[in-house]
Structures are given as C-alpha cells and as structure tokens.
Amino acid sequence: MHYYVSVPDPQSRFLDITYTIPEITSDHIEIQLPAWRPGRYELQNFAKNIQFIEATSPAGHKLPLHKVTKDRWRVGTAGENEVRIHYTYYAAIQNAGSSYVDEGLWYLNFVNFCMYTEGRMTEPYHVELDLPEGYQIACGLPSAGKNALSARDFYQLVDSPMLASATLQQCDYEVRGVQFKIWMHGNLKPNWRRIERDFRRFSREQIAMMQEFPEKDYHFLNLILPTAFYHGVEHQNSTMVVLGPDDEGEGLYADLLGVSSHELFHAWNIIRIRPAELLPYDFTKENYFQTCFVAEGCTTYYGDLFLKRAGVFNDETYIKELQVYMKRHFESSAHAAQSLAESSFDLWLDGYEKGIPNRKVSVYHKGALVALILDLYLRKKTNHTQSLDDVMRLLWVRFGKPFIGYTVQDYINIVEEVAGESLEWYWHDCIFTATPLEDRLNEALAFVGLQMSVFSNGNVQLNVLDDFKAQLQREKWLETAQVLTIDEEELESDEEE
Hints:
Layout: E1 2-6, E2 14-21, E3 28-32, E4 50-56, E5 62-63, E6 65-69, E7 72-76, E8 83-90, E9 100-101, E10 106-108, H1 110-113, E11 116-117, E12 125-129, E13 136-139, E14 148-151, H2 154-157, E15 162-165, E16 169-175, E17 178-185, H3 192-210, E18 217-224, E19 229-234, E20 238-244, H4 250-265, H5 292-309, H6 315-332, H7 340-345, H8 347-350, H9 365-382, H10 388-400, H11 408-419, H12 424-432, H13 438-446, E21 450-454, E22 460-464, H14 468-478, H15 486-496
Parallel strand pairs: 1-12, 17-18, 18-20
Antiparallel strand pairs: 1-2, 2-8, 3-7, 3-11, 4-5, 4-8, 6-7, 9-10, 10-15, 12-14, 13-15, 16-17, 19-20, 21-22
Helix pairs in contact: 3-4, 4-5, 5-6, 5-9, 6-9, 9-13, 10-11
C-alpha cells in the first residue's frame, strides 16, 4: 500500500493525495476513511474535509467510484490489478489530533486522511512526502528513505503523527536503553538543558515503576502556538502536544511537563494495556467501553505523581495540582447523575463537550480522584507493600505485554487480588454509582496528612495537616521508585552543578 502526499499550494491548506492499491484480484474493492481517531472517543467524520476524489487505473483511465456510507467508497476495478485513488483533503486545523499545512510547516495526522482497503489493514503501508527542500521530519514511524516513512500496518500508520519543517528544534536523551526525542516547532527558544533534565527524570521514574518500556524509541512532538492552547494525544511511540501561548514562560513550561508525563504513561496504559472493546480498533463506528476511568483516570493520577516522585515537582506544586483535579470535579460534576462507568461509556455521546447540567462526570478528573482513593487504601491496608503501582504492573504483564484486551471484570479481579479482599464498597461508591466522593476522598487523604474542604460554591481547599505520623506515610507514598546506576548518578550530579 502506497501513499503519495503533496501540497501544491500551501496557502490553500489542501493536501493532494494519491493512494495506490496493488495486487487486486477482485472485480471491486471497498476503501474506508476512519470516522474517529485513537485517543479521542467521538466520531469526527474526517470525510467532510475531502473536496475531490476519483479512482483511476495506472494508465489514467477513470474507474467507477460509488459512495457506500459517509466515509466508505466502492471501486470497480474493471480487471485492473492496481487502482489509484486521487483526492484532496483540507488540512487547516491546529490541535493535537488534526492536520495542518502552510508555507513553513506540514503537520499530519495520517488517521485524518489516509484510507484503508477493506480486508487489507494488516499489510505494510508506505508514505512518500513531496516536502520542500530542507525540511526535517519528526515522527515515530521508521524512515524509508528521503522524505519517506513506512508502517508495518494501517494501525501503526494512523497512530504516528508527523511534524515536518525547516525550523524544527530538537534534543534527545536516553533512559535504560530507550531513545527519547523532544521536538519543538514554534516561536520560542527552549531551555534544552532544563527540559532534557526534567524529561529524563520523569521518563526514568515511569520506567522504574513499570520495570520496562514498551518501545525502543519515543518522540515528544510539540507544536507551540502564539495563542492559548492545551491539548495532547497519545500514540504508539510518540505523543502530539499543542500548547500556547508561546510567551507564557513558566506557565507554558508547567503545562509542557504535565501533559508530557501524562502522555508518556499512555505508552503503557491504553496503547498496550487496552480495553478489550478497543482491540483492534474499528474505525467505522463507536467502540463503546466502560473502562476509560482506568485508561484516562489512572493516567491523569500518575502523570503528576511521577513528576513529584522524580523530583521535578516539589510537595507544594504537587498538592496544588491535586487540588486542581478536586476543584474541577466538585465545581462541575459533584452532583452528576451518571456514574464514572456510565460516563466512560458515553464518551462517544458527549464526552468532549460541556453537556447539560449535572449529567456526566469527567473520566479524567473523577477518574484521577478514584485512582487516588484506591492507591491510598491499598497502601494503608498493606503498609505500602501493595499499591496501585502493583495493579498497573499486573495489567501490563497480563494484558499489555501480550497485547490482549482487558475487561472491566479483569480490572476488578486484579485490584482485589492486590488488595487481598473484596472491594465492593469501592466499586459501588466510586465506579458504578453516583455516590458523592467527598467522604471517601477525605478518608483516604487523612492517611497521608491531607484534608479537603469543599465550600458551597464548589470551591475546594486542600490543606496539609500538622501530623508527623501522617507526614511519614505521605513521604512513603511520594518516594521515588528509581535506583540510579553510577552513570545516572554522575549525570544527575552534573545537572546540579
């Protein structure tokens, strides 16, 4: 399978695409454009951005092309063993799941505009790019020559966004044999020494906790805009992040750290530790699942926790971030009618819009809070010998590493195995009903010397209690999992100089 992508007129924002389908043995084929993309569980109907489409033979003869659904076409092959689909796609949106081209940048999410042939998703896909001279490519896909990329199958292709420009900035680092690259595009001068140090620390913390990394290399792709923006999307061995404004200074850097740590943990949790309903992805329709409180809730909880454990955040900064999750939950959805599991299922309905009052909860914010409750309960019960860390490692070993989907019952079983008891109270109060969280949350927080107050307007205050014994428990909860090698210790001491 081969794609040729060009941009004849960058100001028009249109991609010109030729999709070549070889080795055809039937009198017709069906081609499908994805209706949604990994990482965002809503139908986005990318086909609305196709301006023109035709099917031809290698000699240029037009072939019959009929639309079957909003994003599916049937092509009559007329005896040809190779068919070319030529079309134009409007790439004019800058968010972490879109595509955009102008005179100085190609930002491509292949899932937006690359079609697959029914029954042939697992074949290799090759992309050739007619890039301007001097452009550099940032992408998780392996290079297949100058301005060319290769994917082992369609799933890898559409889970690998790309930036290309003559003005990309980048640095790289290595952790435990894994190569990491940080790419930046935008009007800024990165403090690479600081960025590399902090990214290396939280990457090492995550690998130390999970004990291995799923990929050999990983790419942080960052598009920094002059306007306010905050969006990140996880991918197979990369993440696409769009942030702004570019002159925000420390605020921008804090956002960069938070979203990058969150997205990196997704390399385990959702990319590989994936709900059974999403394996494999069906790009033609909704893929309903109840466990986004694991996929996004646990990831949101761990994103900032890793920054604290790694020494990138201090106690004060971490507690302030915890307070943000609490504030967002209690201000907007403390009295919501839906349970966390119901809101997970309904992501496809209204998960990415404000929605009507008191209907849904956030799988991110409430999901992070129930992960916190579970983690602290396990730690209190076992004096820190068992925790949510053990749950995530078991999910990785049993489901992520062999790449088989887990069900909500699988998650329940692993949590209760780690707990050594039934946790009916947890599933009832935190996951499957709309029971208010305040009491359970404060019960968990007391163990580590924290107390949350919720005021009548929904505002939240998280206080540190003057309790020495609880402070010791808090230190155990937040301590690093890293055991540095001699080389890593030398690197850390060099950074401090």
